[in-house]
Design a protein that fits this description.
Layout: H1 14-21, H2 31-56, H3 67-74, H4 84-96, H5 103-114, E1 118-123, E2 128-137, H6 143-153, E3 159-165, H7 169-174, H8 179-185, H9 189-193
Parallel strand pairs: 2-3
Antiparallel strand pairs: 1-2
Helix pairs in contact: 1-2, 3-4, 4-5, 5-6
Length: 196
């Protein structure tokens, strides 16, 4: 079997070129065979693209149109107005949230939403625990979804508190950032609070 020659370089279909490479060399100059392999290759390209796209739907982190099915299966209300990443975080946390209630379970769920490290501290005397966002500055954009997920996980008798991280003046002092440098950044107060 010969390697593909320069004659069928005119084929634009990837699968068409592959199909053409399996043919005997005397077809290399045949425009009929080139057209045939191009049309069959186009169809195979579309098929492989559809197969790849379908395979993506089996994994939460790559799902697009398949998120609807994930949400339906897990009993999550579908909100197509939310960004895809937030919807994926809700599904992922619901999948992580199965099992016996523990700090690790809450952390797994919270980290799926926050996209960063989360610390959980229990206050048994107060029947409560605190979720502290370590890597996330400010309030995570989908905090309401996170609160709902944790409410589903936690025992009814336990209270939960959320601790957010903001920029403090000591941080700026330690970094030796001047007012002029802050001024040139032209940040609003809200942007400055979560600036790192």
């Amino acid at each position: 079997m010969n390697a593909p020659s320069a004659v069928h370089v005119g084929l634009t279909s990837e699968k068409g070129r592959e199909l053409f490479s399996y043919l005997p060399s005397y077809y290399e100059t045949s425009r009929v065979m080139q057209a045939d392999m191009q049309s069959k290759g186009n169809e195979m390209d579309l098929l492989y693209q559809a197969l790849g796209e379908t395979l993506d739907q089996f994994f939460v982190r790559t799902a697009t149109w398949g998120l609807d099915f994930w949400e339906q299966e897990l009993g999550i209300e579908t909100d197509r107005l939310k960004p895809m990443e937030q919807r994926r975080a809700v599904v992922e946390s619901k999948l992580r949230g199965a099992g016996k209630f523990s700090g690790r379970l809450v952390a797994n769920v919270a980290e799926a939403y926050a996209g960063g490290k989360v610390d959980i501290t229990f206050q048994p005397e107060a029947w409560s625990f605190t979720v502290s966002f370590v890597d996330t500055m400010g309030i995570p954009p989908n905090i309401d979804d996170l609160k709902r997920a944790i409410d589903e996980l936690k025992p009814a008798h336990m209270a939960v508190e959320y601790e957010y991280r903001y920029l403090i003046w000591d941080y700026l002092d330690n970094k030796q950032i001047t007012w002029d440098e802050l001024d040139t950044a032209s940040l609003t107060w809200n942007e400055l609070e979560v600036w790192a």
